[in-house]
Specification:
The complex is a heterodimer of chains A (267) and B (588). With 267 residues, chain A is mainly α. Chain A is built from eleven helices and two strands. Chain A has a two-stranded antiparallel sheet with strand order 1-2. Chain B has a two-stranded antiparallel ribbon with strand order 1-4. In chain B, strands 2-3 form a two-stranded antiparallel ribbon. Chain B is globular. Classes of the chains: A mainly alpha (267), B mainly alpha (588).
Amino acid sequence: MRRSRWAALIAVVAALVAVGVAYAVLNAQSKAAAAPAESATSAQLEEGRKLFLEGCSSCHGLNAEGIDGATVNNGGNGGPSLIGVGSASVHFQVSTGRMPLAGPAAQAPVKTVEYTAEETEALAAYIASLAPGPASPSEEELDFSEADVAEGGELFRTNCSQCHNFAGRGGALSDGAYAPSILDATPQQIYEAMLTGPQQMPVFSNESLTVEEKQAILAYVDDLRTAPNPAGQDLGSLGPVGDGLFAWLVGIVLFVAVAVWIGARVR
Amino acid sequence: MSATVNAGKKAATYVDDRFASANFFKRSLGKVFPDHWSFMLGEIALYSFIVILLSGTFLTFWFKPSMVEVIYDGSYAPLKGVEMSEAYASTLDISFDIRGGLLMRQIHHWAALFFVAAISVHLLRVFFTGAFRKPREFNWLIGVGLLTLALVAGFAGYSLPDDLLSGTGLRIAQGIMLSIPLVGTYLSWFVFGGEFPGTDIISRLYAVHILLVPGIILALVTAHLIMVWYQKHTQYPGPGRTNENVVGYRLMPIYMAKAGGFFFAVFGITTLVAGLVTINPIWAYGPYTPDQVTAGSQPDWYIGWLEGALRLMPNVETVIFGFTISWNIFIPAAVVPGLVFTAMALYPWFESWVTGDTKEHHILDRPRNNPTRTGIGVMALTFYILLWIGGGNDLIARFFDVSVNAITWFLRIGIFVLPPIAFVITKRICLSLQRRDREKLLHGRETGQILRLPHGEFIEIHGPISVEERAVLLSKPEVEPLALPPTEDANGVKNKKAGRNRLRSRLSNWFYGDNIPLPTPEELAAADAHLAHEIEQTTPVLDEATALRVGTPGVIADEGVLHDDPKLVAAARDAARTIEAERGENKS
């Protein structure tokens, strides 16, 4: 039997349609799976879009597609694309005051928060609606009351202390960047930072640190923040440099003062 | 009363009958020591060492120097169930489950920091006053040895608890050993008993920390003190003080009381600090595992300069026949400290060779009177402090908001540029202080009293300096740079040592060349006569001026300056009253 000369074309079109339909269906499913538990209302999305256009689009682009580098056209502002960063990232950056950015620097500093909790939610919902990404943790995910503090300590020392220091006080990175103190961050912010890896920080996805392990870390950080120090006043928990400074500026100065006093008595 | 005295006599006789020690005590207790607060800096080190021995003994009762892995089950909740070495677990027990243990640990660690700091300031005092000169060169050498041993003891102690910082420090120490060409690998395997970290290092360091090093320190401290005793203590220049006498107080009772009191003050302050301020919170660092590290990992302060040297060194390596020579570690961590300690140890001989000074010195130099030595000291200090800053570069970057890379580059250049600048500035300051001393001897002290003479001239009145000050100023030793050696002697025989001696003469000129000489006795006599004449002339004018000051324009005499001389003030008041009384009479 002689094949129709359209056969090849029909086969290709059919295959393309099949792939397209399958992709659309699967994509929709994955989108549904990634959507936050409380789905955003359209009013919230609309508010988020408005806030985004007012406060963020000058650097991140009108459609959050990002602006490449600093050019004359964008007034020196260039920000990364936010498509697919997820609500966790938006909530972390905005609720700590890192965004909107204070100015071009090695790294965005923590500063006064510009948006209310509702506005932050709206912004996060709007960005999350653009493409799927890591979502803000739920109440259950943030509940570390059952977590193992000792395990959290081990995980903290393995994954966090090399930059954030053993007591979570932070430390320097190269070229003016730094790991900030995490003692003022909320559990949600710490969780989101692990999930999204802001700035210099690596991403600790739920595959590399499970939800339980993240909760253990939260419990350990909470212990760092709240447990009383059994050994008196700490000197910033920065390691031996603080001890040495104290030994010279207070210890030796006191001893010499006593020596001068004793030396002067006899005269 | 008499019963007590009799009992005391009996006891003394009993002891003397058996030890024949009465003469020894009589002589020793009557020994005279000069008095100055800066002579007590070494005492701080000695007393800190005693505190370390006492608190350390307490710690040995419970510390287990073992690297056997155990599961922690003590009372510190955040580490419950964590696997750790027995050394770390027993340190946690000392901190949380043994009464007074945490206080003792903190006393021990603080006292260790104070110990090395006190040694350092004592060393600086000895250096800048030239107390290391003949006949005390070997006591200086013992002091350098003590400092080195203190660093070793401190580092071993820092490593013993086997916490995260301990292990990180040991890892760096192992890296330094490995960097030594040829023998490095063998050395590391020998010290650690195999691969790092192995299971031996803690128990080995324990022996070093509680037996070997403290034993040697104790022996050397004893030798150090015996030599001070035997060679007599140096003294600062002053009236009646010569190279042949010691002016001060007797050991008994003055110095017994002083030293005893000072010991308790040092112990008390150390305990107070240890009770109030955290040091080395090992529970927060966690147990050592090689895959963990913390930001702010630093050694204790006295190793900080070596840490800084390591941090500053650019990454340079050479591969020879397939073997890597790690200059990036070997130079900063082995060569630099080697050179620093060698230079420090040999300095007394260097100075005496350069200056040709072979005399005995029991009177201390004022730092300004030896500008080159003082300059060298400040240069070394600058070098040391810059390395210190390098050791803490991450914290400085964090707290002063600068890039850690910028600090590193600043220090890489500064370490070569700034010490020489410090030398020059210090030497210049010393020389100008010498000039001021000379001025004072020639013109007396400036009283700050300005007088306008009747014909309009302003003069400042000079007063005589005190006897004490004059003795101090005149104590400045006369120094002469060594002359260039003759190239041949009278018979025309070539001087073989001419080359070496020429270098020595140049160095000597560099050392002493800028010296400002004291006034000659003739100059001094003339200056004294002149000053006496000036005082004689100005005193009546000054008195008159003081009297006229009240309500009479044209004569300046500032009361703010006058009031430091009660006689003048009283005279002025009397004169003023007289004048006022006269005026009152005239009016009426």
